[in-house]
Here is the input.
Amino acid sequence: MDILGGNFLVGIAKALNLILTIYLYVIVARAIISWVSPSPYNPIVQFLYAATEPVLRYVRRMIPPIGGTIDVSPIIVIVAIYFLQQFLVNSLLELAQRY
Here is the structure.
């Protein structure tokens, strides 16, 4: 049972890391398209906004845009993703090694 528990934790850690990495790329893509005027009817643009706006809106409520124009919420979310990858994922992997 110890081996199964350890492998289960490794699986959770790797799946979480993959999900966080994919979301990181989605946030970066959203930030890049914000530099141009994309068509709001484009399905890719709609997906990027739908996938990121809830998280970015939450961060914007806590930290409003600087000077009313510079939105730092994508940067804060990227830093949070890196923190989760370094802290949570690595902690799960270390816990799995102890099994």
Notes: Residues 2-33 form the longest helix (32 residues). The chain has one domain: 2-98. The CA atoms of residues 56 and 77 lie 7 Å apart. DSSP finds three helices and no strands in the chain.
